């Protein structure tokens, strides 16, 4: 069985290298493994029931609802307003647009959950201003690519929801757990930018004069509706008044109502938002359905239990296993996006680490943080290519400025490992 499992895992990566989409690569390798290990009838039985049972999940409705909320807010042009307001408050500092991007990135993350969407929005809104004021393009585009990754950690994070669905961990607990790591990450970015500017002041000149307080207050008029929505979502998740699944639907409805009430969405924008949300949701649900087949195959082979037994027999320290797994995840991040990494690794790695006694919520935060690092590292660096396509700056120039942020990310990851309370304190306070 172990030989079959290893062979099918190798076949999975071979399919990925040849360009087969992640969902279908997992379906093909999982189905082949089930046939080789059990024969025709077990394969047919699992194909009939496994994908449907994993997709027909009440918890999974959280994902399309949060995606729909983000699309409605984007169609209503609220995302640009958030960045503009941040710029009025912070733009007068040296490197102020970069600090504004962090503030805007946090706010975007709290209403989006998609790092690629956040990076694209920030790049289109902030980069023209950065270029106008003479920011070095390698620094400015690298900062925007990195700040976009906040959306994978700050709730409502699609990565955390996806992890919760795959591993059957409480989605509400995961979303609450993401607040402090998200705040620490944002602070780490600010410190990194500050360090880079102090070391080389020419990369980020002063952007503009300090905006008058009256002008700053006026910007709040355009963003108070979406800030109110963000606070309602956060308060509902934290208090437990509404379940995470329900708050996704409530948030989408409120985003639609805001966009219509403020006359920011017409029929064309509404149709486009529905189409984008449907496409993204269908892609994610297809991955979940196909990953179910591969996950069932891995479970039936017992390879996880064999690895656990080997670790116990060899007396390998649990933290050594954790560091090895995170290193593997980081390497996968060089080539794959975060959803693909979670789908590929969780069926094997989650039972392994939970069997070693690690908290499932803490594991989720660490894995999402590690996948976040993969979004900015070569050769894949999905956020780097999104920013490159938006700004016209070559990817190699962006990668040249990314390394200080990568070091900051590694330091934050180490902090989260050494201080589990950063991830687990808020869920305990919230009563999860």
Oligomer: single chain
Globular, elongated, flat, extended or rod-shaped: what is the shape? globular
Helix content: over 70%
Low-pLDDT parts are none
The whole-number mean of residue pLDDT values reads 80
* Beta-strand content: under 5%
User: Structural class from helices and strands?
Assistant: mainly alpha
Number of helices: 21
Largest sheet: none
Which H/E pattern describes the elements?
Answer: HHHHHHHHHHHHHHHHHHHHH
Number of strands: 0
Q: How far do the termini sit from each other?
A: 38 Å
Radius of gyration: 22 Å
Protein described:
The chain is mostly helical. It has a domain at 57-281 and 382-400 and 413-429. Helix content is 80%, strand content 0%. The chain has helices spanning 2-17, 22-38, 40-55, 62-75, 78-90, 96-112, 115-132, 137-148, 158-167, 171-177, 179-199, 213-239, 244-261, 267-301, 303-314, 318-333, 338-355, 360-374, 382-391, 395-418, 421-429. Helix 6 (96-112) runs parallel beside helix 8 (137-148) and helix 9 packs across helix 17 (338-355).
